[in-house]
C-alpha cells in the first residue's frame, strides 16, 4: 500500500505507438481512503473516518502550549497552518488518533522547529500564505487508522456549493470552560464563493481583501464554524467520481472566544490548490492534472495507475518512468515507478504488449521478446 504520490507527465508521440490509458475509476493511489467513504452527518466522527488527521501540541519559548490540527499528505509530511508554528520550539504530532486522551492505535512524534517549513511569504496576522509543512522524523506506514489524504488536482474548479467536512479537536461548546474536544469531531458545510477579491466570503469575513486563488471558504452559519484548536486542520472534500477524500483547505485562525459557534462569519481556509507548486518544491510531491491537451503532433497527459503492486516490483532508487514486467518478455502489462512507488498498468489496446524501447505498448511483431 502506498501514499499519494504525484504522477509525472509524459509526452506521447501519437504517430509512433499506442498509449496505455487506464480506467479513471482506478486512477489514484490509495490516498484519501476512509473506513466511511460518505458523509454520514452528526458531530462526532467515527474511528478511522478521517485517518489523515494529525493532532499538534505546540510548545513555545514561554513554556505555553497550544493545540492545532494537521493533515498527513504523504508518509513523510504533515500539512498545517503557518500561524500554528509561529514562535513554537517543538511539537508533539499524534497520528491515527480518535480519542486524543487514548494512546491505543495512535503514533506520536516529537519534532523540533527544525522540522517546520513555513511558506516564505507568510506574515503573522495576514490571511494569505498561512500554510506550513512539518517533516516527520521517520516515514510512517499506512494502516487502518493512518492514511494520507489526497492533495487536490492542479486544475480543480473553485468548487462553490460543493459539500465539505471540517474536522478537528477544537472547542466544541459555547459554554465557558468547555475546553477542547478529546474526540475528533466533524462538521458538514459547503463552499461559498471567494472568487476574485470581492466574493461572498470577502464581504462577510471581515478580514479585508484577499485572493480567491489563495483562499477557500465554507459557510459558517447555523453553528457550522470552526473554533480555537481547529486551526491548521483540513477542509475535507469527498470526490465521488474518484472515490477519494481530498484536503482542499487549511484552516485559518480559530476563534478563541466562547461564542465562536454563534457567529455567521464564514470559515476561512488557505486553498491548497494555490500552493501546490510550493508543496512540490518542499516535498517533491508532484501535482496531478485531470485533463489532457492535444496538438497536431503530441499529446500531453497525466496517467494515473490501474493497479498497485509494490511488493512485486521494487522502485527503490529507480528513476520515475515505465519498466517492463520482469515476469515475461512479451507481456500485456508493465510497471510505472513514481516517487519510489510501483504501479501496474495493462495495455489499453487489445492485442498489444509492452515494448521497452519506446516505453509504451506496441504490436507483438515489433517486440523482440515476442519473436
UniProtKB/TrEMBL annotation:
Gene Ontology molecular-function annotations: chitin binding; serine-type endopeptidase activity
GO-annotated cellular components: extracellular region
Top-rank taxon, per record: Eukaryota
Cross-referenced Gene3D superfamilies: Chitin binding domain, Trypsin-like serine proteases
GO biological process, one term: proteolysis
Keywords: Disulfide bond
Keyword Cell membrane: no
PANTHER family membership: ACROSIN-RELATED, HYALIN
Protein name: Uncharacterized protein
Organism: Daphnia magna
Amino acid at each position: 500500500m502506498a501514499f499519494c504520490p504525484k504522477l509525472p507527465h509524459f509526452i506521447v508521440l501519437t504517430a509512433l505507438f499506442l498509449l496505455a490509458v487506464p480506467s479513471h475509476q482506478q486512477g489514484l493511489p490509495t490516498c484519501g481512503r476512509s473506513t466511511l467513504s460518505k458523509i454520514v452527518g452528526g458531530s462526532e466522527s467515527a474511528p478511522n473516518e478521517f485517518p489523515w488527521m494529525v493532532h499538534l501540541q505546540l510548545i513555545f519559548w514561554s513554556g505555553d502550549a497550544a493545540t492545532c490540527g494537521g493533515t498527513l499528505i504523504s508518509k513523510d509530511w504533515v500539512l498545517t497552518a503557518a500561524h500554528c508554528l509561529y514562535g513554537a520550539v517543538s511539537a508533539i504530532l499524534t497520528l491515527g488518533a480518535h480519542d486524543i486522551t487514548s494512546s491505543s492505535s495512535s503514533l506520536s512524534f516529537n519534532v523540533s522547529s527544525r522540522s517546520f517549513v513555513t511558506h516564505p511569504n507568510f506574515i503573522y496576522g495576514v490571511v494569505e500564505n498561512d500554510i506550513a509543512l512539518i517533516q516527520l522524523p521517520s516515514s510512517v506506514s499506512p494502516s487502518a487508522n493512518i492514511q494520507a489524504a489526497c492533495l487536490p488536482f492542479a486544475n480543480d474548479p473553485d468548487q462553490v456549493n460543493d459539500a465539505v467536512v471540517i474536522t478537528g479537536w477544537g472547542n466544541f461548546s459555547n459554554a465557558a470552560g468547555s475546553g477542547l474536544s478529546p474526540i475528533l469531531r466533524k462538521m458538514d458545510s459547503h463552499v461559498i464563493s471567494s472568487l476574485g477579491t470581492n466574493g461572498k466570503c470577502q464581504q462577510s469575513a471581515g478580514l479585508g481583501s484577499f485572493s480567491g486563488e489563495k483562499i477557500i471558504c465554507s459557510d459558517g452559519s447555523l453553528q457550522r464554524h470552526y473554533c480555537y484548536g481547529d486551526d491548521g486542520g483540513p477542509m475535507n472534500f469527498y470526490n465521488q467520481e474518484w472515490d477519494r477524500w481530498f484536503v482542499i483547505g487549511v484552516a485559518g485562525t480559530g476563534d478563541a472566544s466562547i461564542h465562536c459557534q454563534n457567529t455567521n462569519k464564514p470559515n476561512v481556509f488557505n486553498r491548497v490548490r494555490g500552493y501546490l507548486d510550493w508543496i512540490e518544491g518542499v516535498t517533491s510531491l508532484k501535482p496531478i492534472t485531470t485533463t489532457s491537451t492535444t496538438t497536431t503532433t503530441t499529446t500531453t497527459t497525466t496517467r494515473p495507475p490501474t493497479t498497485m503492486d509494490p511488493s512485486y516490483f521494487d522502485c527503490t532508487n529507480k528513476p520515475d518512468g515505465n519498466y517492463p514486467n520482469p515476469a515475461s518478455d512479451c507481456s500485456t502489462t508493465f510497471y510505472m515507478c513514481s516517487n519510489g512507488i510501483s504501479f501496474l498498468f495493462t495495455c489499453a489496446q487489445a492485442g498489444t504488449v509492452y515494448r521497452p524501447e519506446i516505453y509504451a505498448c506496441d504490436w507483438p511483431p515489433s517486440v523482440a521478446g515476442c519473436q
